[in-house]
Design brief:
The protein is of the alpha/beta class. The chain has nine helices and ten strands.
Length: about 260
């Protein structure tokens, strides 16, 4: 069944306020698509992570409720920071951190943390992995990517944004956000992005969300205009999204250096 494009059912990402429905739709298990995204994040961050750097920090921009999902794939960072325009997403993440402190994991995350814990050196239990990851979070802030980002220059080794920048209102605002990420990166740092591609809609249950319809060429252009070099952008099939009719069938995986 094609997605409903009736304008009355379409909302901006900043107005989508159903955390539970979003997690059920996209994060109920470690799907093949989510594994592809996670392994890309791991590879893309390896060259700019904490190896050899004291206090290396990562910022997840537009983190939504899923910062502790995607950062489970990343190694070597001493500090994790995130911000999102919706306060309920930040509250949800604080709740996960509270759960980790007392050894609780929601069932939806068991596969993810089991996968990550088995690859830790030395291997640890999912509960131990979750607690260690949550303990690295040093800052969670409610803030809109459209506004100047509230961090000093050269604060981070890596800035990530996963299914976030394409939800900005225009390519101009996306370039602004890329420029803010560039400002915050340390020498040798890296911006790492995952976005929906070539559609202006995404689906969560009966709700349709707006997004920018961007392709590989557009992403490369915007990264260059924002001052990034050595950018690499690849297209990937959105396998799980196609099976579930979530409104898109392509993703872009990108990384670039200032």
């Amino acid at each position: 069944m094609p997605i409903n494009t009736d304008p009355s059912t379409v909302v901006d990402a900043k107005d989508f306020s159903h955390v539970g429905a979003y997690l059920d739709e996209y994060y109920d298990a470690l799907t093949p698509e989510n594994l592809d995204v996670g392994l890309f994040l791991r590879r893309a961050c390896e060259g700019a992570s904490a190896a050899g750097r004291v206090g290396s920090a990562l910022l997840d921009a537009g983190c939504g409720p899923t910062m502790l999902y995607w950062t489970a794939f990343l190694q070597g960072f001493v500090e994790l920071h995130g911000f999102d325009a919706r306060e309920e997403n930040i509250r949800y993440l604080h709740g996960l951190i509270d759960d980790a402190a007392v050894g609780r994991i929601q069932p939806r995350y068991l596969d993810l943390y089991g996968f990550a814990a088995a690859r830790a050196v030395p291997p640890i239990t999912p509960v131990e992995f979750f607690a260690e990851l949550a303990g690295k979070v040093r800052g969670l802030t409610s803030h809109d990517m459209n506004d100047p980002w509230p961090y000093p220059d050269a604060s981070f080794a890596v800035v990530t944004s996963v299914f976030g920048m394409e939800c900005l209102p225009s390519r101009e605002r996306m370039r602004f956000a890329m420029g803010e990420a560039r400002r915050l990166l340390q020498p040798g740092g890296r911006l790492v992005l995952v976005t929906i591609a070539e559609t202006d809609r995404w689906k969560c249950g009966e709700v349709i969300g707006r997004c920018l319809s961007i392709n590989r060429t557009m992403m490369l252009e915007d990264l260059a205009l924002a001052g990034f070099r050595a950018a690499r952008v690849t297209e990937h099939r959105a396998t799980t999204a196609v099976l579930r009719n979530q409104g898109y069938n392509k993703m872009l995986f990108a990384h670039a250096e200032p």
